[in-house]
């Protein structure tokens, strides 16, 4: 599994808490990033069928022409998905038919299972 560390940039003005202690300005941003990662693990899984257009193992993404996926409101179209593990796309080539399972993580769809049909 590819583990990516989130990059968090915080520009804020330090505020003084009672007693002269500086309040941490970025704490809420760091918590939001951690919450998104946790939500990806616990989000409901969705499934679809598709034809592979491009499997980009190096970038950890796959471009799929998928059938409608009602559970997330996606119509029949081409969508780029992130891969939970780039090994999921090993051996896939353009034109392969697959069944896949994914979860929503923030604004991304992350595939965690692929089965060649």
Number of beta strands:
7
| Straight-line distance between termini | 23 Å
Overall, the morphology is globular
Weakly predicted, low-confidence segments: 1-17, 28-33
Helix percent band: 10-25%
State the CATH superfamily name of the domain at 46-116: Copper binding periplasmic protein CusF
Round the Cα radius of gyration to an integer and report it.
19 Å
Give the spatial strand order of the biggest sheet: 3-4-5-7-6
- How many helices in DSSP terms? 1
Instruction: Please state the structural category.
Output: mainly beta
The helix/strand order is EEHEEEEE
Strand content: 35-45%
Average pLDDT score: 79
The profile of the biggest β sheet is: 5 strands, mixed, barrel
**What is the CATH topology assignment of the domain at 46-116?**
OB fold (Dihydrolipoamide Acetyltransferase, E2P)
Look at the structure and give the CATH class of the domain at 46-116. Answer: Mainly Beta
**Could you say what the CATH architecture of the domain at 46-116 is?**
Beta Barrel
Give an overview in words.
There is one protein chain. By secondary structure, this protein is mainly β. The protein has a domain at 46-116: Copper binding periplasmic protein CusF (OB fold (Dihydrolipoamide Acetyltransferase, E2P)). The chain is built from one helix and seven strands; from the N terminus they run ββαβββββ. The protein has one helix spanning 27-42; strands spanning 15-16, 22-23, 46-56, 61-66, 77-83, 97-105, 108-116. The longest helix has 16 residues, at 27-42. The protein is globular.
């Amino acid at each position: 599994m590819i583990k990516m560390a989130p990059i968090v940039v915080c520009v804020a003005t330090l505020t003084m808490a009672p007693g002269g202690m500086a309040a941490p300005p970025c704490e809420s941003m760091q918590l939001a990033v951690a919450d998104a990662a946790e939500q990806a693990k616990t989000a409901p899984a969705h499934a679809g069928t598709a034809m592979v257009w491009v499997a980009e193992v190096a970038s950890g993404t796959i471009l799929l022409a998928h059938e409608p996926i009602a559970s997330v409101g996606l119509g029949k179209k081409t969508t780029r998905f992130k891969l939970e593990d780039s090994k999921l796309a090993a051996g896939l080539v353009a034109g392969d038919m697959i069944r896949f399972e994914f979860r929503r993580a923030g604004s991304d769809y992350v595939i965690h299972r692929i089965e060649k049909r």
